Amino acid sequence: MAGAAASRERWIDVAKGVSILLVVLHHAVVKNLPMEAPEALAGVVGGWDVVTTALKPVRMPLFFVLSGFVASRAVHRPWVQVRRRALTPYYTYVVWLLLLGAFFSVERLLPMNRTQDLGELGTDLVWASTGTWFLYALAVYFLLARLLSALPATWVLSGAVTLSVVSSELGIQEWNRFSVLFHFTYFALGALAPQVVRRVAERAPVPLPVLAAAYVGFTVLLWQLDLPTGVYLLLASGLGVPLGVRSAVVLARTTRPAQVLAWIGRRTLPVYVMHTAVLATLLHLPPVLDLESGSVLRGVLHPVVVTAIAVLVPLGAHAVLLRLGATWLFALPQRRPHPRPAPATRSGQASRRSTEACASTSEGPYQVSIRPSTSSLGERSASGPSSAVNS
Fold first, then answer.
1. Backbone conformation region of residue 52, classed left if phi is above 0, alpha if psi is from -120 to 50, else beta
2. Average pLDDT of the segment spanning 77-96
3. Are 184 and 164 in contact (CB under 8 A)?
4. Cα(30)–Cα(54) distance, rounded to whole angstroms?
5. How far apart are CA 349 and CA 359, in angstroms?
6. Complete DSSP assignment for 10-70
7. CA 181, CA 133: separation in Å to the nearest integer?
8. Which candidate, 15, 8, 5, places its Cα nearest to that of 265?
9. Do residues 72 and 190 lie in contact, with contact meaning Cβ atoms separated by under 8 Å?
10. Which candidate, 216, 239, 288, 294, has a CA 20 to 30 Å from the CA of 322?
């Protein structure tokens, strides 16, 4: 049973690792590559654009299905037990909205949805439009799923699908506010119908190569139909999300690749919030790969190398910041409970018994430690940032 649980956890972390890599690769393709590639490499730029566009029905839908799947038990718990889970993503969103807003008010080269003034900042606090919209969406989606958890899942999913379709008619497809409206369907699927996700992960009705070929053929067909963005993404993700889940399950059976992807998948938050700043900084440094020679090979490798840098640098910065105690950048600060003084006794045995009783109290399955050890505090600090973005 322990081995089966570990296997299930690994494929989820692997899938999250793949998702964040695809997000960074997408930004490396659409933001950095066109600005650094000469006209001679227009074909390479176009080819990469086709690849990252074809992955759009997989990238964020898979991320949100996983986020909802991990939160599927929490959405049915009492509010008092889950309020921190709802507050942490929004708190982190506000922190990085301010930090990145300050950064991109100075850095103006990278194509970004920037917060231009205090008015836009106020609007972003209510309805996200910048690159940190995923964190805002996590907070809002969790609250919606918790509020709607008493309703039949089919009702909620039908309403979410309708919202996804209608969002295409608002004329905001080029803004992240469209993404906030559109992707609730996937979080609701994972949170309110987790058995569907589990069934896809545990059963393989068709081999993975067949599923991949079907996805490619289906997306090509949908492109020809010139459908509204929301309709196209919903239909394509019907194969794209299962393809992502099954690919993660297969990758999780490997050794070294699974270890690397799962390790990244447990640290998606620092990569997500910091990678655009790294991409912007690279534009002001000597080129990673000199593309002026028109080398097709360099043009093909450029987004891959830039993605690697934009992932490794935030992970390194995250480790340093945690060592410096800057956990508030990645998780809502947690107040430490103060132990109640035990009544003085002649032998001190009553005091020890009182302390031990307090330390072992529990609320349901959750152990409550009054005086956590240094190692347990360190573990909570290290896991907090990952859970904030993946809950």
1. alpha
2. 93
3. yes
4. 13
5. 15
6. HHHHHHHHHHHHHHHHHHIIIIIHHHHS-GGGHHHHHHHHHHHHHTHHHHHHHHHHHHHHH
7. 11
8. 15
9. yes
10. 288
User: What letter represents residue 64's amino acid?
Assistant: F
Of 53, 72, 52, whose CA–CA distance to 64 is shortest?
Answer: 72
CA end-to-end distance (rounded Å), the chain: 23
* Side chain identity, residue 250: V
The overall pTM is greater than 0.85: no
pLDDT tens digits, 119-173 = 889 999 999 999 999 999 999 999 999 999 999 999 999 999 999 999 988 888 7
Q: Closest by alpha carbon to 30, among 133, 114, 112?
A: 112
Amino acid at 88: T
Residue type at 221 in one-letter notation: L
Count CB neighbours of 377 within 10 A: 14
Q: Are 265 and 13 in contact (CB under 8 A)?
A: yes
CA atoms of 128 and 175, how far apart (whole Å): 9
Q: Which two tokens stand for residue 338?
A: 């103060």
Q: Which residues lie closer than 8 Å to 307 by C-beta, 6 or more apart?
A: 21, 24, 25, 28
pLDDT grade for 344, boundaries at 50, 70 and 90: low
